[in-house]
Write a structure and sequence with these properties.
By secondary structure, the protein is of the alpha/beta class. The protein has helices at about 20-30, 40-50, 55-75, 90-100, 110-120, 130-135, 155-170, and strands at about 10, 30-35, 80-85, 105-110, 145-150, 175. β5 (about 145-150), α7 and β6 (about 175) form a beta-alpha-beta unit. This is Gluconokinase.
Length: about 180
């Protein structure tokens, strides 16, 4: 796969479909999925499971680890797709520092739809009670380089297709409904 973007982060609030869309992107792009949530330390998962939002300090080690994992995959010749909330610009900048040219796919979603989706998601550590904190933390990546903004209510398969197409022929900042 020839691309100017070595790896992708599928970002957004909880419930936007990051993991499902990441899987669809991999199907259409030939990339490899690396689930960002798997790298949360036990303390972060316990905190979120208890309904306590993470702060910048909680996320610092997690983001450093994600950057290492992404950089290693790219160095090995892989094309990783990583679902990761990446809610703040400073988090995205840390990841961009680890992997220059990193692309972001922002799955935009309303608070109401996110709440419904998270409430109906069995077995996940992130409770619906944390949706408001996710939106309070979110700094949309408007105008940021190598960023595709998509409506998260589109069918997952379509989101995967749109992203794979953009990844093959990237443009600096694109918004598609």
């Amino acid at each position: 796969m020839a691309t100017l973007i070595p790896a992708l982060i599928v970002m957004g609030v909880s419930g936007c479909g990051k993991s499902s869309v990441g899987e669809a992107i991999v199907r259409y792009s030939g990339g490899m999925l690396i689930e960002g949530d798997q790298y949360h330390p036990a303390e972060n998962i316990a905190k979120m499971s208890a309904g306590i939002p993470l702060d910048d300090d909680d996320r610092a080690g997690w983001l450093a680890r994600l950057g290492e994992v992404l950089a290693a995959a790219v160095a090995a010749g892989e094309h990783p797709v990583m679902p990761c909330s990446a809610l703040k610009r400073q988090y995205r900048e840390r990841l961009r520092y680890a992997v220059p040219g990193l692309g972001f796919v922002f799955l935009e979603l309303s608070r109401e739809v996110a709440g419904q989706r998270v409430s109906n998601r069995p077995g996940h550590f992130m409770p619906a009670s944390l949706i408001d904190s996710q939106f309070a933390t979110l700094e949309p990546p408007n105008g940021e380089p190598q960023t595709l903004v998509l409506d998260a209510t589109l069918p997952i398969d379509r989101l995967g297709q749109l992203t794979a197409e953009w990844w093959r022929h990237p443009q600096p900042h694109v918004r598609r409904a």
